Amino acid sequence: MTEKDAFDLKDFLPYLLNQAAEVTSREFQTYYRRRYGMLRTEWRVVFHLGRYGDMTATEICDRSMTHKTKVSRAVKALEKKRFIKRTVVEADKRNETLSLTPSGRAAFRDLFSAARTYDATVARQFSAEENAVLRACLAKIAGA
Amino acid sequence: MTEKDAFDLKDFLPYLLNQAAEVTSREFQTYYRRRYGMLRTEWRVVFHLGRYGDMTATEICDRSMTHKTKVSRAVKALEKKRFIKRTVVEADKRNETLSLTPSGRAAFRDLFSAARTYDATVARQFSAEENAVLRACLAKIAGA
DNA sequence: ACATATTAGTTGCTTTTGTAACTAACAAGG
DNA sequence: CCTTGTTAGTTACAAAAGCAACTAATATGT
Lengths: 144, 144
Known about the structure:
homodimer, 3-stranded antiparallel β-sheet, 8% strand, 144 residues, DNA-binding
């Protein structure tokens, strides 16, 4: 077997990334899913509103690189669960501003802190340098 | 804003991992999808058989941490496309050995080399050390 | 030998995602 | 104004994934 043939699935970045993403997503999911009945996109929407303030669905799409149908459905579900409310923008009635309700804000605070804790748990496995390299590489790949 | 509040979605590992995984998967997908009409799990099955030799569906499940229904459906689809064939194991008729057909083997060779090339393309963005750290971290996260 | 448990793999049903077509509101050029 | 184009967001339909119940073959304890 030549050196070239020693290429394994575990050497293949798309595979590695998917496996790692799946593990962490599955683990963190239990927070927003079990406790608030949220889906991943719903949690992302709540995160954006809680972290950056009121904004429209399109802004969330742009910032989180999520497709608008996913956000549209997440918004609908969050509205039904009374975590967010919408307000049509009078100046341009195509837009609607999304904002967290009090219970949405409470969920955000809880999940935000859970996210920080979970992130720290994963990060604890690595040195500061490793963490920096890992995150920089991921951001670069994701950004491309 | 305190230091604690400076936690961003882009600082959250599950999010970063998902974004990075999505970008690379989407890019590499075009190979197996456009050229062979395969789905991701089908490509993984082909990879396993081509890289490690004949094995059963359960072995593929174990090695690739994939659920058996996904593999079952991938096997069915690959069989219909004549990329693999199954042989019931006489010693234990619950098992069936999967193996590539000649056209399956040809597809594997092509995709294997495309995978190596694509991986190198992503890796080229980083130094040798960065690559080593990235892959080691991902493997550790995925393994946990 | 026989009831019970396990293992391999499949199927049916539900949930989630992707894609494309659609509505409604606005913008811009003539 | 009025046609044409664009933008925000929704919806309908199809593809894919997840989960649980199922069949068939084998193993195990009594």
